[in-house]
């Protein structure tokens, strides 16, 4: 390579280090011959007459440098401003190629040039990285034991800079000599907003039954079963088993002896009172629009809900199963305190509401009372009931839909007379009746349940 070419190549390297992109391609070996530019020769409007090639390149480079003096480009993106000046901004120009042509041909030689960011890819990548923010959806925090079971974390939208759009905008601004570029960050919507999170944890139903705290064993069992139901979440399509929640009704599992219904009789058994929890859940589930996949009625009517609204559970043979057929999870809060058991169901807010109607079809008189043994406690007779229950669906702007849920028959209870009463009855002119009709269900009375 000739001396002029070596000097030209060295100068191009120095210029590049100073922030100019000087493209040295395009000059042939012959074009690097020793000599001076013909008179009347210019490169890009710079007169290089009589100059050697290296001197011509230096003159053109200096002119380009002066042209950039005072120029700055401000890029506004992602809420920040980035200011670039020379040497961060330089020229892309094939000065060496233009000099070779000028040496060969003389005359006015054009110089194609364009402003450019030095290390453009790295600079624009940094701007994109600064603006990037990962989004996060609103979250629901569920604590069934808290006074208010739900707290919410607000969503945060994500954002990013479109790298291709940023590059195009910067290059256009540099080409036109503009001094400012504004690039909007692309907003990425969160998967769930705070409003949507709140709507997904709306109170769908609440149902309360009452129990006697004086019956310590039964009150304990109600509270224990309620605590094991409390905080349960039923995912979409999932079926909740009450027996799986409550666990085996054994002393080892924490349950105590209390009255239960067994084969149409009131007896003492471990776990008495648990059916009240399953019954309360049964009603709350229906009122929330959930599907009851399995339920069983008692053999005798209970005192804490109207007929055809009970749900008996026993061991592993009789269970209450509730299915969430909705598209969102539902959460259960169950609390027992001061003689009141309340089950609440939370889920996706809906304009649809439900109610349950219970209707007594027939009252069944009890059989004649019997005389009990000396140790047998007396017992009032209780009439049986044949009943039906309906689920009423209400939606604004549409007629109510009334669907029959179930039809049940509850056996009457035979009265038991004490022996002394039996003797007196035999000598009296009028028999003594042990029959006491069951009063209508009234939740305000807080009836004392027997099972």
TrEMBL record:
Stored InterPro entries: Glycopeptide_resist_protein (IPR052913), Vancomycin_resist_VanW (IPR007391)
Residue ranges with Low complexity bias: 418-436
Keywords per UniProt: Signal
Compositional bias annotation for Basic and acidic residues: 397-409
UniProt-annotated stretches for the region Disordered: 397-451
Domain of life: Bacteria
Endpoints of the signal sequence: 1-29
PROSITE patterns, per database record: PROKAR_LIPOPROTEIN
Coiled coil: none
The protein, known as: VanW family protein
Source species of the chain: Candidatus Borkfalkia faecigallinarum
